[in-house]
Amino acid sequence: MFWSRMDGTPEVMETAAEEVAAEPLVGMLDMVLLTLLAGVSVYYFFIRDTSKKEDSNALKSFTISPTQLTPRANDSSFISKMKSSGRNVIVFYGSQTGTAEEFAGRLAKEATRYGMKGMVADPEECDMSELSQLAEIENHLAIFCVATYGEGDPTDNAQEFYEFLQNGDEELNGVQFTVFGLGNKTYEHYNAMGKYVDKRLIEMGAQQLFELGLGDDDANMEDDFITWKDAMWPKVCESFGIEAQAQDINMRQYKLTVHEEYDPTRLFTGEIARLNSLKVGSQRPPFDVKNPFMAEIAINRELFKGGNRNCLHIELNIEGSRIRYDAGDHVAVYPINDQALVARLCELVGEDPEKVITLTNVDEDSSKKHPFPCPCTYRVALSHYVDITSLPRTHVLKEIAEYATDNKEKEKLLLLSSTSEAGKAEYQRWIVQDVRSIVHILEDLPSCKPPLDYLCELMPRLQARYYSISSSGKLYPNTIHVTANVLKYETPTGRVNKGVCTTYMQQLKPDNGTKYHTPVFVRKSQFRLPSKPQTPILMIGPGTGIAPFRGFIQERNLQKEEGKPVGETILYFGCRNKDKDYLYEEELTAYKDSGLLKLYVAFSRDQPQKVYVTHLLEENKEEVWRIIGKENGHLYVCGDAKCMARDVHALISKICQTEGGMTPSEAEQYVKKMMNQKRYSSDVWS
Question: Of the candidates 204, 201, 102, 189, which has an alpha carbon nearest to the alpha carbon of residue 153?
């Protein structure tokens, strides 16, 4: 304090030094301060602890002591968990829709049936630099179940692992692994992640214990997976020197607790992660997959003008959420299952939907303590967390077979779940072609009454549904627009199946002051307008494929109104009938009349011969080549991947040949170059 108050000049410092020298070293005030300091020290180190212990003992009479937990391994250290629990197999998953995670769980269970000990791990929650330490565990195996998302990209939870592989700093000598990739052949980058993970692990020195498996969702993903794993386990057993004979044992992953007494305010009611996180007005940003925003349904109107089909235009109010989006991004909506199906499932197994339960992982080392937020009622679990409309996979049928009291029905389920050719054919016919959900199966095999908690364990999690945003964030910063067909169709068994999310959203129509909210979050996309507005663009989007292009056109129009030079903006749209399902006709006509938009529309059923967007593209092949070949324009495709997108791809390659004078191989190389340069972008689904 003394020196900090001094002026820095030499004269002042010298005078001060003389004054200090003239005073005694320890004055009366110093003695008082030192005595006080000593007293405080004695209290702090000796008396305080005794007092605290007495207070603590007094408190014990009216406080609840927490459960004593044994020290546990670092949560992010999968190596520590494996070593402390004697595990030798770890299954990592990269999952966007839950299938890869489901496969990972099945593989970890099967490891136990083969005499090994497995665990499931989310790479996002692990320190993946520990992979090299797997070599320290005898007879170890790392299995990677990885899905490919978007344009050959990793799933959200595998992004960091992908970056780890790209950096390639680690040496994985002695690490034994195998990979199963999940993809769809209708997409350009089929199983790109599975192939990349397999290739990079080998390059980093790891030993491939079994060949790469590739699952095709366009054909039969379940069949691909079963064929791969049934060949993989004997090879692993041979390598480990153990008998390749699976024990047919029923292994429950979760333990059921029924709550007779509970606090209603502590029950989950559909939250994704945190209790009460979906309360409107009390939410906290940032909003993402685990913390969605409760967006108000501002507008919900029908777009079709006739016929027996429905298409929704929905506007989600995101004001105050701090959510930002660009044209081309996706919005995810968390749906609720049809309540009639929920009630029917409870009725079929004879369970009370209002029963309050908790499912707890029997594996104490697992990072996933519950399959979904618990405690909750069966009704909440089946409404918000369990996918009860998807086609059950073979392992589910095998597990519920033992609960069939009729021998013929039990044999039916065992056949459906078998790997024989007859079993595979029957599964394809009775489950896939007839589109039977778990509710339909239990209706048709009435003696089968599995415990509802076991079905909650076996069935996949209900996933958010993604939609291409049909608005521009620059024009509509406080609302997100969605354009979605309502899925509804009759199955070969005469049942009517409905889309989970579109059926749910169709009911949320604000009226007479009634407000509806739904949990949403935004996922960023690479589907983007060119950075320079003067770059010409050619958009191909039949049906609801128009969604992102509506946002693109809005943004181009805004740029034009701001006086910016805007390049050619061309849209190819297609639908069945002009007077029934021509989406946003008035808007598109207005943009066309203003001179912004050049519009080509194909009405497939308004004349004897069907006309599609590909027919119009071929008619205008000179213009198409001028845009993509001479003026370096951008080409965008949105919609059906299986037919439309493939046909467009083939046609573009053909135009490069006929108009660009290229050979077939040169044309294909040019198209790939466009894709690599982000001048040919696809936002497609199957």
Answer: 189
Annotation says 418 is catalytic: no
Runs of H (alpha helix) within 313-418: 339-349, 378-380, 394-401, 407-416
Q: Which helix (H) or strand (E) holds 358?
A: strand 356-361
Task: Measure the CA–CA gap between 633 and 377, rounded to whole angstroms.
Answer: 55
Strand partners, 599: 571
256 bridge partner residues = 359
Can 683 be counted among the known catalytic residues? yes
- What is the average pLDDT across 422-437? 96
Per-residue pLDDT reduced to its tens digit, 442-483: 999 999 999 999 999 999 999 999 999 999 999 999 999 999
DSSP character at residue 491: -
Residue 586 pLDDT more than 80? yes
Residue of 468, 471, 525, 681 marked catalytic:
468
Catalytic residue status for 376: no
- pLDDT-derived band at 590 (thresholds 50, 70, 90) equals very high
List, in sequence order, every beta strand (DSSP E) within 502-631: 517-523, 537-540, 569-575, 597-603
Catalytic residue, chosen from 217, 338, 453, 683, is 683
Judge whether residue 19 has pLDDT over 70: no
Q: Would the pLDDT of 268 be above 50?
A: yes
Count Cα atoms within 13 angstroms, Cβ side, for 298.
Answer: 12
Q: Which of 638, 640, 653, 656 is catalytic?
A: 638
Q: CB-based contacts of 61: which residues, under 8 Å, 6+ apart?
A: none
> Is 638 an annotated catalytic residue?
yes
Long-range contacts of 593-597 (CB under 8 A, 24+ apart): 594/557, 596/553, 596/556, 596/557, 596/560, 596/566, 596/569, 597/553, 597/569, 597/570, 597/571
pTM score of the predicted model: 0.85
- The pairing of beta strand 330-333 with beta strand 356-361: unpaired
Q: Report pLDDT for 313.
A: 98
Element (H, E) at 119: strand 118-121
Predicted confidence band at 22 (pLDDT cuts at 50, 70, 90)? very low
Supply the DSSP symbol for 134. Answer: G
Are 341 and 365 a contacting pair, CB within 8 Å?
Answer: no
| Longest alpha-carbon distance in the chain | 116
Amino acid at 495: R
Cis amide leading into 451 (omega within 30)? no
Cβ(89)–Cβ(178) under 8 Å? no
Q: Residue with structure tokens 């889309």?
A: 499
Exposure of 107 in the CB half-sphere (CA atoms within 13 A)? 33
Count of C-beta atoms within a 10 Å radius of residue 265: 7
Q: Could you tell me the CA-to-CA distances from 453 to 257, 346, 378, 379, 409 in Å, in that order?
A: 10, 11, 8, 12, 21
Tokens (6 digits) for 326: 């660009």
pLDDT in tens, 81-116: 999 999 999 999 999 889 999 999 999 989 988 989
What's the burial of 598, exposed, middle or buried (CB within 10 Å: 0-12/13-18/19+)? middle
pLDDT tens digits, residue range 224-244? 999 999 999 999 999 999 887
User: In the structure, what pLDDT confidence band is assigned to residue 146 with cuts at 50, 70 and 90?
Assistant: very high
